[in-house]
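SEQUENCE AND FOLD
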Amino acid sequence: MAGCKRRVEPSPHWHSLLFNGFFSVQRLASRAQFQAVLAGKTIARSPHFALHQLVGGLDAVPQSASPDTKPLFLRADVWIGAMVPKRWAKRAVTRNVIKRQVYAITHERRSEFAQTAHLIRLRSGFDKAVFVSGSSLALKQAVRAELNQLLDSGLPRVRT
């Protein structure tokens, strides 16, 4: 049996993490998903961000009459999107830093979100005089602090 590679079975622990809610945050991907959430209501605002939520839950999204089209949201779960326009963050490195912070914060606080679609949108730019570097530690900390403030004001309190 020289040269045979042993097949490694995935551990049952990994399977339970995957299907018991550990990776329970889905990302918005299509233009239609983003438009559906933007058409919903704005539930919180901060100086630089806005938090949007799909109105009526995932089932309330009108589906097309054609039976062969897929629904916008394939499963009932928490859906998160980040919208960082070039208008407010000119450099790609800055847009990527902000998106990474959005997804990191929402993953950490995923238990506080309702099972519907949410979108965090950058609505004004960060001052280039204060944040000279596009991916400075100061910018990351400022974005993270403001996102926590936004989610504190926009999400209902979860009692444990």
User: Anything to note?
Assistant: The beta strands are 25-27, 41-45, 49-53, 78-83, 117-122. The CA atoms of residues 25 and 107 lie 7 Å apart. The helical segments are 12-19, 31-38, 92-108, 137-154. The mean pLDDT is 84.
